[in-house]
Amino acid sequence: MTQKQIVDVNFSELMSRLLDLLSPKERDVVERRFSLGGNKKETLDKIGKSYSITRERVRQIEAVAIKKLARISMDPSMRQIHSLAYEILSDHGRVMAENQLVSEMLKNMANAKTLDTNAIKLAMRVSDRMVKQEKNQFYRPFWRTSELSLMDVKTLIKNIQKI
């Protein structure tokens, strides 16, 4: 494991700059889905009802907003976050449970006690070097490097189960 540089990023300023690039509806959906600003994470269905649209449409709005944020994520602070997360993933076999990855990131960030972990998750979500696998009946939420396919992870899990 390599010695990691401490990342000092003003997350509230970074999130404000990023979210200002979204339309009001996109911003609201992202803030509610990622529970930014101290609010509780909301379901697609609940957000959809508040806008009188389907949860699928909310998911589409969220996806468009994430892609929009990814295109403009060349901010130096964002690159620092992505590099740290990628380095940690690489040091841990290129795949980690989300809570473990966030915990490791916080160990390498200045002002970790005051950081919003949901802002960290959003910042990682717009990286093209990492992929989040959402929770389902088989897995807890986890992250993997983009060069490691989901099929590789599934094969690895099956091999571990055999052992």
Task: Label this structure with key terms.
163 residues; mainly alpha; 3 strands
TL;DR of this structure?
It is built from 8 helices and 3 strands.
Strand content: 5-15%
Estimated structural class: mainly alpha
Structure annotation, total helices: 8
The count of strands amounts to 3
List the helices and strands and how they pair.
Elements: H1 11-19, H2 24-33, H3 44-51, H4 55-71, H5 76-91, E1 95-97, H6 98-107, H7 117-125, E2 130-133, E3 142-145, H8 150-162
Antiparallel strand pairs: 1-3, 2-3
Helix pairs in contact: 2-4, 3-4, 5-6
Structure characterization notes:
The chain is mostly helical and 163 residues long. The protein is 56% helix and 7% strand. The protein is built from eight helices and three strands. It has helices spanning 11-19, 24-33, 44-51, 55-71, 76-91, 98-107, 117-125, 150-162; strands at residues 95-97, 130-133, 142-145. Strands 1-3-2 form a three-stranded antiparallel beta sheet. A hairpin with an 8-residue loop joins strand 2 and strand 3. It is globular and about 50 Å long. The chain starts with 10 loop residues before the first helix and ends with a helix. The model has no long low-confidence stretch (mean pLDDT 87).
